[in-house]
Amino acid sequence: MKKTIGILGGMGPEATCDLFLKIIKSTPARKDQDHIRVIIDSNPEIPDRTAYILGKGTDPRPYLIATAKNVEKAGASFIAIPCNTAHYFYDDIRSAVSIPVLHIMKEVARSVKGKVKKAGLLASTGTVKTGLYERALNEVGIEMIVPEGRDQDKVMEAIYLVKAGKLEEAKAIVLEQGKLLVSQGVEVVIAGCTEIPLILRDGDLPVAVIDATKILAEACVREALAG
Questions:
Q1: The whole model's pTM is what?
Q2: Among all residues, which ones are annotated catalytic?
């Protein structure tokens, strides 16, 4: 029997939709009934995660925990969070519910383990500051490179442009920053903010683009079909 996927979403709504679509595309199905039940709470009222991490905003933990409990109460077997930065609060969320919570950084690290030695990261400033990807990748023997200073500010600018629907402006910035990472010798570039795969796809850069949202979707399907 298939497990039910729960999505703690809304950060942002389009990134949540992207995860849902990638779950559908990753599911081996020939008819409606072959697909997996998915419960989504898309809560855009969750305060900005990066702002809080940088000491400039409201604590999102009460909102994240309440939304996770909502998803659990609705019948989810486990939870996925389509927001990389929100994983800074992973332990708080995990301890507040009685069902498993997938961890996007660990899933990405698992997917690239043994394949590369140096990876670039395009992510929110909050995610970069937390070191979540760096730790996960270092544990599997991969060095991580991130944009620094004004370059990271530009990545953050692109993320907020995506949230505002200004995709062409955002893509131009992300392509520039991705190419800068490639010039530093990275073998892959991780799209480590769920807004970035909305504008950056594999084939856009001279090296492979790792879509963290797609990897999370595949993990959701794997977990749901494990029975």
A1: 0.95
A2: 83, 193
